[in-house]
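User: Hello, can you help with two protein structures?

Assistant: Certainly.
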Amino acid sequence: MIDCIHFETNRGIDFLQAAVTELPETVESGGFFERGYKRRRDSILGDVEAVKISPKPESVDIAIQQSIIVAASATTLFYLARETGTPLESHVAATFGGH
């Protein structure tokens, strides 16, 4: 079970590292979104890198914690992509294919 969770977490990491590069560096929408955009974009990469350099989990708890971090980063990515009009379909298809 740990290996399966770890495998899927790593696929998520690969997806996020590729897809986040599609987001614009900055936005000029003004207001709250603009102020938090760069911090959120950078946090995706920071969180993913932290999980990536972590040792392979030895317990289900740690494996799940890592997968939750990656899932939260994916949620942030899709939110930022929607708000900036950034298409991510090609990255989803390339990473997850028929799954």
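That covers the first. Now for the second protein you mentioned:
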Amino acid sequence: MILYHYSNQDVEVLKPILGPTRHGGEDLKAVNKPVIWLTTSSEDIQDNQPKFRYTLDIDEKDERLFEDRPFNSTMKDMVNFGISSVVIKWFFYTSELKPQKKEVWNGENYV
């Protein structure tokens, strides 16, 4: 499964951390635990766009990969109610990861 991690940190290996941007509705398996947040979205455009996009290929059966079920359920509901047209899923990973690809934001795209 291809997943993405967005960050302002320039690293060769992603390490699980406790981050300040976590949300209150996250999966209980991630609460107060260091994790790496991953998404299916290759176009996570934001006001303060992260400088780096890391691409990872992770086996769906990897025991260290967990779906953020509460958040993904909310995202699915948003599509069902017509609030969003794209289903974005979030996952978290509990060990270090070496990305297959690192791209830099150039102001318009990741290259």
